[in-house]
Amino acid sequence: MNKQQTTRQPHPSLTGGAKGGSLITIAIDGHSSCGKSTMAKDLAREIGYIYIDSGAMYRCCTLFALEQGLIAADGTIDEAALEARMSEIHVSFQLNAATGRPDTYLNGECVEQRIRTMEVSSHVSPIAALPFVRAAMTAQQQAMGREGGIVMDGRDIGTAVFPDAEMKVFVTASDEIRAQRRYDELVAKGQPADFDEVLANLRERDRIDSTRAVAPLRQADDAIVLDNSHMTIPEQKQWLLDLFHKKTHPSPSL
Q1: Following DSSP, what letter does each residue of 197-231 receive, concatenated?
Q2: What is the pLDDT of residues 36-86, one digit of tens each?
Q3: Closest CA relative to residue 64, chosen from 157, 130, 5
Q4: Domains defined along the chain, listed by start
């Protein structure tokens, strides 16, 4: 059985699914550092779906702006220049044979590590709040998921990108636990990290993401909430698989 995200072949458990046997769309939204990407990647691999990291796409836009000198030292964004160059930003994902997970590519170059730095994290929410950035990335995301059979995580997937997704999950956890996860991730990668700085950055991102004018972070009305503050990764994985099977194999009406 091929479980690579690059395949369009359905997992055997999909027969008789929510679309009468066709592939469904899975939207996983929530706050930063909730482990959305990890659970979305694991779910996609388990069920044979394609995984799309929407957050990585906004990080690519941020990296592009930083490297092109479009963000000043005080954090001011040259919005006019960035908007004029949005057509130069092309994001794609390629399966990493060594890790079994997709890496993020910006204009054909692997940037998986560079987009995960604190510098990018500190600027990504203001970049992602720009209407023209969201419009461009939403168009790319919708093109990627046009045929279904995808798992996508982000902030507005179930509300703006795929409002008709058959399975929607909203993930949350306490601020301190999310900050500790992010801190541990940075340390494991050998990147400089300060817990208080990580916590402050996380709370500021929450504020910006939840109050932006276009597609703010919010729970979709039909999303199921998952608070994973005290759950292990295997427990999260089983919870998602159980929900997936309920969505693709609904119990017959009595």
Answers
A1: HHHHHHHHHHHHHHH-SSS-S---TTPEEEE-TT-
A2: 988 998 999 899 898 898 999 999 999 999 999 999 999 999 999 999 999
A3: 130
A4: 12-243 (3.40.50.300)
